[in-house]
Amino acid sequence: MNGEYENILVAKEGPITTIILNRPKQLNALSPNLIDDMNRCVEEIEDDKDTRAVVITGTGRAFSAGGDIELDIIPVSKMNPMQWREYIKDFCRLIKRLNYSNKPYIAAINGVTVGGGCDIFMSCDIRIASDKAKFGHGYIKMGIISDMGGNYLLPRLIGPGKAKLFAFTGDIISAEKAEKIGLIDEVVPDEQFTEEVQRIAQKIANGPSAAIGLTKEAMRRSAHMNLDESLDYSANLQSALLDSEDFGEGLKAFLEKRSPVFRGR
To answer: What are the pLDDT digits (tens) for 100-127?
Structure first.
């Protein structure tokens, strides 16, 4: 990546780009500048044809502790409604970019995750957590609600009942509990965490990126369709893949009884 960022680190190894929230003294709390860095970075990644999988993680002992008290929560408390609605647009823009991107995003949740940090990882496609991670939606403890997609994403991940229990109480839960209710997809012992994240990211990056991107789109859109509409939409997407180089390679590899070598074309 060519951009220079104040609040995140960006590392690229082959087809995998890793975004690292980098405010460890503040537990990677969210600020307007961090969100701006994230938006600019994700936009740049979208235009990078060589990136075929993206990992989002944090430095230190947290993924993200939610809104920064000094730089986010206190300033927001002094805004009128019109000012606040303008302010929150960039935060929401990041959530939409992660959801609508044709790149696969993997949240590597390395530690404490609260509030907006949860909303960010829920916007990713796959969620992998260290067994040292802990989770809390948190908004309710300040008398407010999620404003970064949590009310949309949370019940779709874990069901309305569990979503309300998690949101209404603000309780902090373990990685084991988070996996049990479906908030995350896999818990990994901390000493194996980085290796397992890289293994999964590499496997996805080595896959047929066009088919992965369209699978992501089909699943997202099908959530708002009936079965007939989803079948028709998926058929239209499939027709776009039948002329692809990756489909030709996949078919040839199947007939030759070998592993395919996809090139993302």
So the answer is: 999 999 999 999 999 999 999 999 999 9
Please give the Cα distance from 36 to 38 (Å, whole number): 5
Residues 6+ apart with CB under 8 A from 122: 149, 150, 153, 154, 157, 183
Q: Backbone dihedral region of 40: left (phi > 0), alpha (psi from -120 to 50 degrees) or beta? A: alpha
Q: Which two tokens stand for residue 74?
A: 């206190």
- pTM for the model stands at 0.93
Place of tokens 């939610």: 66
Q: Give residue-wise pLDDT tens across range 37-81.
A: 999 999 999 999 999 999 999 999 999 999 988 998 899 899 999
Residue keyed to tokens 């776009």? 240
Q: Which of 24, 30, 93 is nearest to 59 (CA)?
A: 24
